[in-house]
Design brief:
265 residues; alpha/beta; Rossmann fold; 9 strands; globular
């Protein structure tokens, strides 16, 4: 079996470059996304001067930090995204940061770590720990059901999360990632997620090819743009109706988790 292309930095650069969403600002995103950005900015601990924003993308959060008066450096793999960042930037991977130990008061990883496969993930945790002098702030989707946004490649039939999320994250997970740090604050924020039934979604996938479909999705196995087979319209409609009822019965919850950690050693 060939090795998945999803585990290398070049794949991630290509995937995120393909998405036609960049150049965002607080004024152009949804109310839920604004709430997430505001929560991340407000979570930066007092006394922080220097911040490294790893995986900063187009600077949606980094630019707000600059406006708040922090000394920010943004890091991302995709140079086309860094042109939107109103702070000094470095083209690099979070798994290999070109900075000295303890270079920054705070290291921020906002909607980054949920994307990384195991080898890259473990290296990234070590690098964040290494360059953070005092604090780490982690923002990830909160206890996301990864089944709900699964796509299927029409070429090789690989099933994967459309946004390439590979882990479900809780506060306990984040605390375990950084044993040299202590959790000092947590916050739930972001878009309100309606409840969705995993068994219903699995049934719709199996019986009607009801997978997520959208533009700019690259298969992590074969590396081609996804060309999905059309879903069965009756199964898709029935699943949509049943999921809406489930959402009404079970309500919503915040989609994003922000965790603040302080070095304890």
């Amino acid at each position: 079996m060939s090795k998945s292309v999803g585990g290398n930095a070049e794949f991630y650069a290509r995937q995120f470059k393909a998405l036609d969403i960049w150049g965002r600002s607080r004024a152009t995103v949804s109310a839920g996304e604004r709430a997430r950005v505001d929560a991340v900015v407000s979570s930066i601990p007092r006394g922080t001067r220097t911040i490294l924003d790893v995986g900063c993308a187009d600077g949606l959060v980094a630019n707000e930090l600059v406006d708040a008066g922090f000394d920010v450096i943004g890091v991302d793999l995709v140079p086309e995204l860094l042109r939107f960042v109103r702070a000094p930037t470095v083209e690099a991977s979070v798994a290999s940061l070109p900075f000295e130990n303890g270079s920054f008061d705070c290291v921020l990883a906002s909607d980054v770590l949920e994307h990384l496969p195991s080898e890259m993930f473990e290296a990234s945790l070590a690098e964040i720990d290494r360059v953070a002098r005092r604090h780490v702030v982690i923002n990830c989707p909160h206890r996301e059901d990864l089944v709900q946004l699964q796509a299927r490649c029409g070429r090789c039939l690989t099933v994967f999360h459309a946004s390439h999320h590979v882990r479900r994250v809780s506060e306990a997970d984040v605390a375990a990632w950084f044993p040299a740090f202590t959790v000092t604050a947590t916050m739930l924020t972001g878009e309100p997620w309606p409840f969705r039934s995993r068994p219903l979604q699995r049934l719709a996938q199996l019986t009607g090819r009801v997978f997520y479909q959208g533009a700019g999705i690259v298969c992590p196995m074969c590396g081609y743009d996804v060309d999905p087979a059309p879903p069965n319209p009756l199964v898709r409609a029935a699943n949509g109706a049943a999921q809406r009822v489930a959402g009404i019965l079970h309500g919503t919850r915040p989609s994003e988790l922000v965790v603040v950690l302080a070095r304890s050693d």
